[in-house]
Design goal:
The chain has about 120 residues and is an alpha+beta fold. It is built from three helices and six strands; from the N terminus they run βααββββαβ. Helices cover about 25% and strands about 30% of the residues.
Amino acid sequence: MRFVVFVRATEDSEKGIMPPDPQLMEAMGKFNQQLIDAGVMVAGDGFKPTSQGVRIAFSGQDRTVRKGPFPVNETIAGYWIWQLNSLEEAIEWAKRCPNPMPGPSEIEIRPIYEEEDFQ
């Protein structure tokens, strides 16, 4: 099973402020290497602030482009894609993750549809 693991945005990440603590970056690097070594991590990246992005709204044939920034509670700062056997395994890996932000933060885990889900 594949899972997308979202790192939810914070006020600091939306301002483009990189974590000031080099130990946090080092800890995240070590965690990512553990994911790779265990064959769990398929992909992962961080996102620039929503002020540098857009959203496109669809309504029938109409398309509306809105420029960021967008509310922090509606945004994602980064993601991983993990390959695991169960949601419980994904939860256990996520609990081992260093806090991805300097302050309070949140991670969201979502299963990805696989081809067999549509058969």
